[in-house]
Give the backbone structure.
Amino acid sequence: MAAKVFILGIDGATFDIIRPLVESGRAPNFAKVMREGTWGPLRSTIHPITPAAWSSFATGKNPGKHGIFDFTAPIRRNYAFKLNNARDRKAASFWAQLGRAGRHVIVANVPFTYPPESVHGVVISGFDTPGADRSMASPPEVYDDLVSHFGSYTPDWSFPAGKRYEPEKYQQEVADVIRRRADATLYLMKRYPWDLFVTVFQSIDHIQHVYFGLGEPGLNRIREAYERMDEALGRILEALDAETTLIIMSDHGAGEIRKVFFLDQWLEREGFLVPNRGAWLESLGRSLGRRTRMLAKKLLPVRARGYLRGRMPGVRNFVVSYAAGRPVEWSRTRAYSGGMYGNIFLNLKGREAQGIVEAAEARALCADIRSRLLALVDPDTGEKVVEAVYDRDEVYTGDFAEGAPDLLIHWKDYAYFTKKGIDKEGMIFSRDLTLDSSSYPHSGTHRLDGIFLAKGAHVRTQQTIADLSILDVAPGVIYLLGNPIPDDMDGRVRMEMFEEGFTRANAPRYYRDTDSPQAGGEAGPSAEAEDEELRRRLASLGYLD
């Protein structure tokens, strides 16, 4: 079996950028892996969104089994949404399972691993970490070690939030973050024992959100970032021995935003959602309150914010929740939106606090909403914009599927970006989109197909592979390391990736995992004080309204 497995995650990476760079000689290290290994597109989750995709990668299970569908989860009693983190994951990570089997693991910068779980090795949480301190590492001493060696350590926070548009400065910031991530990765590789190493670089995703829809000038900036990523890959390749299998993957792909679609406004126009027009002053007050809190967040030091939270018990609950949008007359509303990419929840009687939709009429209501969405056309091109509208049971299976939206909109090419809010001109479709509290454009979004590349002693060379799923990575890695695979994983070992002699001698083994799921650990007090910072960062990339 493989002596070691190294997984390099590149958030948002797409072959749409990598292949032309390889063909032009500008990405020699990606070219080397493609030439000496197996590669192909990696299908993400529906929706192709960071929390669901990385949690499915971590568990080998669909979101219905691990319970994380979006950045937020609905709070039915008050039509609010709370921020998710690793403690909301209801399934064990494959690195925790390998750790229980005695394997040494290092996991660094993987999204939605905060608070970090205790494993046989090291976990350093990713960009959803509220604050850079000892609470982001397990054991905490690893954070001290990194700070001692590098002077500081933070996740990949290459967000242009709250900044004046300075493209050259931002380009350099992205390059610096990629270099620092590579530095930290190489240090951890040498400093601590490992059989499995997982690290994620996120700056590619961030810069694509800014530039992907800005034509050649924007794409050139993205290509330059991929070249910096190729250099980082080269450094990692030099540090790996011949007995280590390298896997490169992304959680989803990327592409331009063609239009913004205001879903609540469409639901209102179609008669499914009824706004409470008499509550606009209350709504304005809440908006001003949020702006005041954000200003305080920028001006108050962390210690002062923690002091205030300790004397205002309701503050944390507000920070981790946000209202479902403008005021709604729930007694007349049958459906509302929440989360990213087009999620619709029915105002179901007995489930929502003021639900009015009877269970017997839910199916017909879903069919009505679906048919109207499928008839939508782009006002400029006249082309239909919705590829499919799924019931949650069509997409998810498992004990936690009931936490999913009732309907999920699969936009054509996933090129239409959904917003909950209201366009100032009353439009359903719009083009105007900027990153939160900044003058940076928001022109790129996610696509279903990410990347997968593998290179190692037992991996076939010069081979392309089709129909890979992000769910297949976990069982494949466990198989490569010679350990038995939990039999409730949704992914499968793609035997055609490996040399025939190897697979003939090594059949996959399975077992029933009866241990309690290991998810996130306990958050530290300084992290508690930083929840609002996390919400601000997520909003800065359009992840929260």
